[in-house]
Amino acid sequence: MTIQLNNQLVRRALELTLHFTPETSIPECYKAFVAGMKPHHRDSEFIVKAFVDKVSSWERTVHNLINSDFDVCRLEPVLFLSPLISEANCEDTEDYNYFMEYLEYRRYVEDCCDSEYENLMNLADEYCLEYDKLMKKDRKLKNPLAQELMETGEIELNGHQIIFWRGHTRDTVLVQQDWNRIESFAALNANTGNEMGRVVFSGIFQIRRMELATYASNMGFRVQAAVNGKTNLLVYGSENVGPEKVASFLKQRELRDDIQLMSENEYLEMVLDNCLV
């Protein structure tokens, strides 16, 4: 079964499921949700996968969720509750109306408890909020320069052609998640002397970002997630370069001279010069 949920709704649906799951049946990796704490970033992929696995055997999940037996088909709105831009208003979408019918049935026919009803309503509200954001397309970045760069789409900077996100989100580049993941900055930098300074990677690269970062560590760079006053090098990929990182780079370049911009090919040439491959 294919799950068509964005990250926010996956989290909400998982919280909803856990709310009605007996404490003794909740795996250890879910405990952060129950305690109301945000899970560690490294756990997020396992949490999403666990939810997908849960849905694939939905009959068992139904029993844990509402403690009653009924036609599994009625839960399809929960599984596929993902905004599709086909109507002007959220309330006009087929998914929303189907889900609200299910909600009313749970409340007034099967007499669900107040807490379950409240959670289901919250899920419907989050669907509408997400739908409105997609319709308005007005998600603004906090950094005004980064917002301007994103709206521009791409810029040329000292001979470097930099292509930004252009409205992409983590979901739209989901296939790149593993490719772009750096497993642990702490482990990567544990044996780095920082002789070469600090480096940040942004965008989609020809080789895995973890491999690029390992080369950097071996050369004596300390690898960072964000550009700041200590960054010495920003390496950018062929597309989907983060506008906030470039905006921070431009700000730092106005303040000091010891920060550079480098393409992936230039970076790999530096790696070859250091005889690392």
Automatic annotation (TrEMBL):
InterPro entries: BRCT_dom_sf. It comes from the Bacteria. This is BRCT domain-containing protein.
